[in-house]
Design a protein that fits this description.
There is one protein chain. The chain is of the alpha+beta class and 84 residues long. The chain has one domain. The strands form 2 sheets. The chain has a 3-stranded antiparallel beta sheet, covered by helices on one side. A two-stranded antiparallel sheet has the order 1-2.
């Protein structure tokens, strides 16, 4: 059943897995689903993109990418301007 919530149609097959991925990895990766079979995560630091055909595969690829090269998660603004 589809439900209207603040102008957005809820109830698609990928809402729950997408929310789960964003909950766990959203501060390090921008995560989107462009329909079933088109899952994408983009690193917030380098903007490198990872693609997969399902949420479980994307989760595994994100975890492997993060283990190899952790994404800095400190989002506080710098108090000092860079020299130069």
């Amino acid at each position: 059943m589809l439900v209207q919530y603040y102008g957005r149609v809820m109830g698609s097959d990928w809402d729950e897995p997408l929310d789960d991925l964003r909950w766990h990895w959203g501060d390090a990766y921008l995560i989107c689903c462009f329909g079933l079979g088109r899952w994408v995560a983009q690193r917030r630091d380098s903007h490198a993109t990872i693609g997969a055909d399902g949420p479980e595969k994307l989760r595994d690829l994100i975890a492997a990418d993060y283990r190899a090269h952790p994404v800095p998660r400190d989002t506080r603004p710098c108090r000092f301007l860079p020299e130069g």
